[in-house]
Amino acid sequence: MVPRAQATQSTETTEGPTPAERARTLAYGFADGVLVAPGVPYAPVPAHSTDREGRPLLLVQRASPIVAALTAEPDGADVPATLRISDVAPVTLADRVRGRAWLHGWLSEVPAGELRGAALRLSRAHPRPELLDLGDERTARDGEREWTILALEVAQVEIDDAWGSATLEPEEYAEAAPDPFVAIEAGILTHLDSAHRDELTRLLPASVPPGPVRPLALDRYGMWLRCSAPPRGAPSFDLRLPFTRPVDDLHALRHAYRHLFAQSVETRSTSPRDP
């Protein structure tokens, strides 16, 4: 695992996201998910998201083994299952896995009358053509529906990432909210990496030797950088740059960026680097 470091840019800093917030962010649907159930082959989920309470909604083919397992249950009983989520950085790095989450619970098929709403929810994160027919009553009557949506009633959540490991109760998980930048984080990071990589080196504290810097992660509380410090061959490490206060929209995020860069320039002018 890549070592982590904490950089304090101001005496007025904030805490990072809670374990529940981080879990809700991973479950939102932009991190890869795999569905695991007893007696069923592991199956990558083509698309997943959550409803307002954080209940995972999973797009699967009706002919898949997991749907067959649900159908085989007597009296329509739910099936125990785990949604395994891997958070992979959008920027190409040697170690791209930023965190993992495991959502344990009970799986069921979304009733026909609720499929349209579930499909609309999924389409916010994944505008896939397979979702178009799920709310079509004619398709349902004719038995031509190829896809369906499963729901996972969460009983327990585990998360392991740069902040550490935690186990969450379903109420704590449900009360949290995903990060406001979850849907655009990948675009922001790839833009920073392609157009502003040199400028990111200005954000390094004076105590950190100069070297290549790549953007790794972003949330409303701050950002992570992947640093490769000389001499050549030295291990990379991840540096956390907290914002002075949480941000909730692009305007506030731009202001936080400007503050980080301005403070970096001021710090460098008063604190020369170690030789």
Describe what this molecule looks like in 3D.
Residues 5-13 have low confidence and may be disordered. By secondary structure, the chain is α+β, with helices and mostly antiparallel strands. The longest helix is centred in the C-terminal third of the chain and has 21 residues, at 250-270. The chain has helices spanning 19-27, 65-72, 115-125, 137-142, 170-175, 185-195, 197-200, 250-270, and strands at 4-6, 32-37, 40-44, 47-50, 56-61, 79-88, 97-109, 147-161, 164-168, 213-219, 222-227, 237-242. Helices cover 28% and strands 31% of the residues. The chain is built from eight helices and twelve strands.
Secondary structure layout:
Elements: E1 4-6, H1 19-27, E2 32-37, E3 40-44, E4 47-50, E5 56-61, H2 65-72, E6 79-88, E7 97-109, H3 115-125, H4 137-142, E8 147-161, E9 164-168, H5 170-175, H6 185-195, H7 197-200, E10 213-219, E11 222-227, E12 237-242, H8 250-270
Parallel strand pairs: 1-12
Antiparallel strand pairs: 2-3, 2-6, 4-5, 5-8, 6-7, 7-8, 8-9, 10-11, 11-12
